[in-house]
């Protein structure tokens, strides 16, 4: 890359390599030296955004999940979205009941290896695939049964399409969680979906807010505010606290982009959003995803425009080389060797694990959970984890009736001091240092399975890092700005007071103020004595200077 190469150049280069036209749904993500995730901004220099030395490690993945993935025009686009959702399932972000989990895994199996063949697929062949963070032998048998009896004859493209149609109906479809805490200090995970704003606590959805109900989003430091206006003019402000100011800013920017993409009718409606107030400069941000023809100047296309543009695509469907891709992280091809389960086979027999049997632990039906005006502290937390020991000592036991993404043992790229859904159990165990985090990696399939592991030690108590020093500078500038504004206001009030008491201006405004009893009392009881005192002191100083 040239030093001044913009993110748009890199993104276009990658989409050209993949022969991808419906590119507005995708983005490039990276992790900075402070372990904070970022989306690459296409209008800025790539090198300046990295804040690290080359080679740069980035990940091409879905940024805006399609509202209806089955309605995508081209098969290559559906395949890349399929890879992303398959990875979400593997990392425990996509919650579902047992029957749905078995069906989704069977679709993956059919797409990977085709029809069941007794000569090639011996008993227990489904156990060689890792579809979920953990799963039982009973679920493996159910997956194999569906694959054998129900999916025979389906092509990879058909299986992937059916997978997308099923995944899109699940409540946590499109969730990319941001770890936070509510006002009561309880761990929560905020996410933006094609349908609205979601708050998860444990494995329960405590809030769902449609995009047309979100009136404003802003942040100050580590605090994130969501302003909601519901029916009957009911207005609510939800407050959450991110682990770091950078994580909070990333959360705010993701919210601004998602709301613009899914809510607006035209890109010309996109406006620059500011988080500033009277005393703090704040940040300004504008949705600029993919700068393309047909979009308003300086901003990206919204979902409706993307669908209209996709309908106009007329070309021969590009060839998809599924077999030539790197084996899937979530379910590698048998021809590339089996993937070891996260739990040893000899120990899995003693583990009582299942995917959620229904969505009873989630609140209400999809896209209809009401916002509660009460404190977030009364939100129900996930299953108790006090008895859960470190995974190196014994295997976690998940209740039969619920499956939580927090129980996943697989890492995901998060901020260094934050906890992702699948790492929440470490908090209960009081793990002191050395948490495993997943770094966005370029070694893998084109869509989302290109992420390696980043192992980061807990920071020591050394000097301030670049990010911390920047935050200190911002704080000092904010304090200085506050002092200057205060002094300026006091100076203006002093000038107004002098004009009222000493000038001969006889305008109606000043006359009305002077005739009020309060002003007359202030003038004779306080201002006149204070003026005489100042005059006396001033004469004393002048006489002292003359004498010397």
From TrEMBL:
Instruction: Give compartment(s).
Output: Cell junction, Adherens junction
Question: Where primarily located?
Answer: other
**What SMART domains does its record include?**
B41 (SM00295), FA (SM01195), FERM_C (SM01196)
Matching entries from PROSITE patterns are given as: FERM_1 (PS00660), FERM_3 (PS50057)
The segments labelled Disordered in the record are 361-392
Q: Which segments constitute the FERM domain?
A: 1-266
Q: Name one GO cellular component term.
A: adherens junction
Q: Any transmembrane segments, and where? A: 475-501
Which UniProt keywords are present, listed alphabetically? Cell junction, Membrane, Phosphoprotein, Transmembrane, Transmembrane helix
Instruction: Tell me the GO BP annotations in alphabetical order.
Output: actomyosin structure organization
Q: Name one Pfam family in it.
A: FERM_C
Q: What does the protein in this record do?
A: May be involved in regulation of cell migration. May regulate cell-matrix interactions via its interaction with ITGB5 and modifying ITGB5 cytoplasmic tail interactions such as with FERMT2 and TLN1. May regulate ROCK1 kinase activity possibly involved in regulation of actin stress fiber formation.
Q: What is this protein called?
A: FERM domain-containing protein 5
């Amino acid at each position: 890359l040239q030093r001044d190469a913009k993110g748009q150049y890199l993104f276009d280069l990658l989409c050209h390599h993949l022969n991808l036209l419906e590119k507005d749904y995708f983005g490039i993500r990276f992790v900075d030296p402070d372990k904070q995730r970022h989306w690459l901004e296409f209008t800025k220099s790539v090198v300046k955004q990295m804040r690290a030395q080359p080679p740069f490690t980035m990940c091409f993945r879905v940024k805006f999940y399609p509202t209806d993935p089955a309605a995508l025009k081209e098969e290559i686009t559906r395949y890349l979205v399929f890879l992303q959702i398959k990875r979400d399932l593997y990392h425990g972000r996509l919650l579902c009941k047992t029957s749905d989990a078995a069906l989704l895994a069977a679709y993956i199996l059919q797409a990977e290896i085709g029809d069941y063949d007794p000569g090639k697929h011996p008993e227990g062949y489904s156990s060689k695939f890792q579809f979920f963070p953990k799963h039982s032998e009973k679920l493996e048998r159910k997956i194999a049964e569906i694959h054998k009896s129900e999916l025979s004859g389906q092509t990879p493209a058909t299986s992937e399409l059916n997978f997308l149609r099923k995944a899109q109906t699940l409540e946590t479809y499109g969730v990319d969680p941001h770890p936070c805490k509510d006002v009561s200090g309880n761990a929560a995970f905020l996410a933006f979906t094609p349908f609205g704003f979601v708050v998860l606590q444990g494995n329960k959805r405590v809030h769902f807010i449609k995009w047309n109900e979100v009136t404003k989003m802003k942040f100050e430091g580590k605090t994130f505010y969501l302003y909601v206006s519901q029916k009957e003019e009911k207005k609510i402000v939800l407050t959450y606290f991110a682990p770091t100011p950078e994580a909070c800013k990333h959360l705010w920017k993701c919210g601004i982009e998602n709301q613009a993409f899914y809510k607006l009718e035209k890109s010309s409606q996109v406006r620059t959003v500011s988080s500033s107030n009277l005393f703090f400069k704040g940040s300004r941000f504008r949705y600029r995803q993919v700068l393309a023809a047909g979009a308003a100047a300086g901003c990206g296309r919204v979902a409706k425009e993307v669908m209209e543009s996709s309908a106009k695509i007329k070309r021969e469907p590009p060839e998809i080389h599924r077999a030539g891709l790197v084996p899937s992280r979530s379910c590698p091809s048998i021809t590339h060797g089996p993937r070891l389960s996260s739990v040893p086979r000899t120990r899995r027999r003693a583990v009582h694990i299942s995917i959620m049997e229904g969505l009873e632990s989630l609140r209400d039906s999809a896209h209809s959970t009401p916002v509660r005006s009460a404190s977030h502290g009364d939100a129900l937390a996930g299953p108790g984890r006090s008895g859960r020991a470190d995974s190196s000592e014994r295997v976690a036991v998940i209740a039969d009736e619920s499956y939580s993404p927090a129980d996943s043992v697989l890492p995901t790229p998060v901020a260094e001091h934050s906890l992702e859904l699948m790492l929440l159990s470490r908090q209960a165990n009081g793990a002191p240092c050395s948490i495993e985090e997943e770094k966005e990696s370029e070694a893998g399939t084109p869509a989302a399975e290109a992420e390696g592991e980043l192992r980061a030690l807990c920071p020591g108590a050394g000097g301030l890092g670049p990010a911390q020093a920047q935050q200190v500078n911002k704080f000092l500038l904010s304090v200085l700005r506050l002092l200057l504004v205060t002094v300026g206001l006091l100076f203006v009030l002093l000038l107004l007071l002098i004009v009222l008491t000493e000038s001969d201006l006889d305008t109606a405004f000043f006359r009305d103020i002077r005739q009020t009893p309060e002003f007359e009392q202030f003038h004779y009881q306080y201002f006149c004595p204070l003026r005489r005192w100042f005059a006396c002191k001033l004469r004393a100083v002048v006489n002292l200077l003359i004498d010397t």
